[in-house]
Design goal:
This protein has one domain. It is about 10% helix and about 45% strand. The two termini are about 30 Å apart. With about 130 residues, it is mainly β.
C-alpha cells in the first residue's frame, strides 16, 4: 500500500516555479495560512490535494515571524499563532501563501489544540 501524501506543492506553485525558470521571477512567500481541516475523525492527517487554493478549514492568515536561508539551499519560514491568538482552535494544516495571494504549498498533520498557554509555531523548511 502506498504511503499517504500529507505535504504538497500545489499545481499553482509548481507552475510558478516552472515560469520562474523562464522569467527569473518567483513571488516571495508573504503569509502562512492555518486551518483545522487537515485531519480525519480519528485524528489522522488526510491526504493533500494539489488543486487546493486554500488550506482545509482555513481560519487564519499571518505574516511569517521570520524567513532565513542557510547554505544557499535551505529556506526556513517560521509562522506563529501567539499565546492569546486563536484560543480554542484545532490546528491541523498550514500553508504558504505568496505575494500574489496564491497557496503554493501546504501540509496536513495530526490535530493540535490551541490554548492560551501555548504558542503554536510552524517551521516550514524547504531544501533545494
Amino acid at each position: 500500500m502506498a504511503e499517504k501524501k500529507i505535504i504538497t506543492t500545489t499545481k499553482v506553485g509548481r507552475a510558478k516555479f516552472a515560469a520562474a525558470h523562464q522569467t527569473g521571477i518567483l513571488p516571495r512567500i508573504t503569509h502562512l495560512a492555518f486551518g483545522n481541516g487537515g485531519h480525519d475523525a480519528g485524528g489522522n492527517p488526510i491526504a493533500v490535494d494539489d488543486n487546493r487554493t486554500t488550506v482545509p478549514g482555513q481560519f487564519e492568515t499571518l505574516r511569517p515571524v521570520s524567513s532565513v536561508t542557510a547554505n544557499g539551499m535551505v529556506c526556513t519560514i517560521v509562522g506563529r499563532l501567539d499565546y492569546a491568538h486563536e484560543v480554542g482552535q484545532i490546528v491541523s494544516t498550514c500553508g504558504l501563501i505568496d505575494a500574489d495571494g496564491d497557496l503554493v504549498a501546504y501540509k496536513n498533520f495530526s490535530p493540535k489544540a490551541k490554548d492560551a498557554d501555548t504558542r503554536f509555531e510552524v517551521q516550514w523548511i524547504e531544501q533545494f
